C-alpha cells in the first residue's frame, strides 16, 4: 500500500465517527462506538508505521533540536507530511470524542464545537470550553434539565 493510499484511507476512516457524533449524538450505537478506543489504536498504528518510515538520520537530527526551517524541510517529504496529517486526524478525533462525551455528561450543546474540531481541533476545543462556560454561567437551568434528559434517554435505551 502506498503512502498516498494510507493517507486517503485515514482521511475517510475518521469521517463516520465525526458524522455519528455530530448528526446522531444520542443514538445508542453512537455511544457504543465512541466508548471504544479502537479507532485511535488503528490510527495510532498507522501513525507509528509512517513515523518509523519517515525518520532518516537527517530528519532525526533536525527533530532533536527543532528549528522552523528544519521542520519545514522535514514536512516537504510526502511520508513525513502524511505522518503529520495522521497525527492531526488522531488528535482532532480524540479532542472531538472528549467534547462529545462532555456534552453527553453535561447536556452542553456540542454540534458547533465538534464541527470546528473536525476541521481545526484547537478551535473546536476552545469553542467547547467557551460554550460550556456560557451555558453554566448564563443558562444553568437549561444545563441541568438537559443533563437529566440525556441521563433519562440512556436509562430508557438500556432498560435500566
Protein model, in words:
With 160 residues, the chain is an all-alpha fold. It has one domain. The protein is built from nine helices and no strands. It has helices spanning 3-23, 28-34, 38-54, 57-64, 68-75, 78-106, 111-119, 121-138, 140-158. The chain is elongated, with a radius of gyration of 19 Å. The model has no long low-confidence stretch (mean pLDDT 90).
Care to count the β-strands? 0
Number of helices: 9
Query: How would you sum up the global shape?
Result: elongated
User: Approximately how much helix is present in the residues?
Assistant: over 70%
Order of helices and strands: HHHHHHHHH
Beta-strand percent range: under 5%
List keywords for this structure.
9 helices; single chain; 160 residues; mainly alpha; 0% strand
